[in-house]
């Protein structure tokens, strides 16, 4: 996780680095693993360490490509809660996901790409339409806005129609 502080080493000082690393470890629920060698971490723990390393950079914009792949459901939710919290704290968070359920639940804006082209951009309720889900993802799905947030569940595969 300390590698995330490499760009700041000369300017920030050791105390600031230590605070940023400790905060990132705490945020990703990794403090208890602080002294464990990386070779002894599970795949999910390693994925969380990579997220913590990115958080330790304290950059104004976080770019994450499939950051929750390989995480168990509880840690997927925790990671997405952290990304959403960063956004409310003023840090930009751009997260590429294939899990449309978590994207619908935690993202305020979805951009859907198909064959390298942007085909939809907006709030989850506006973007995750039956037509788009069928055309782009080849699925029929259940989507509802509930008291606890959006719920998205793929129900069946359907043939994809001609797309962009």
Task: List the main descriptive attributes of the protein structure presented here.
single chain, 164 residues, alpha+beta, two-stranded parallel sheet, two-stranded antiparallel sheet, 41% helix
General description of the model:
The chain is α+β, with helices and mostly antiparallel strands and 164 residues long. The chain has a domain at 99-164. It is built from 7 helices and 6 strands, in the order αααβαβαββααββ. The protein has helices at residues 9-12, 14-27, 43-56, 73-88, 100-106, 124-127, 130-137, and strands at 61-65, 92-96, 110-114, 117-122, 139-146, 149-157. The strands form 3 sheets. It has a two-stranded parallel sheet with strand order 1-2. Strand 3 and strand 4 (117-122) form a beta hairpin.
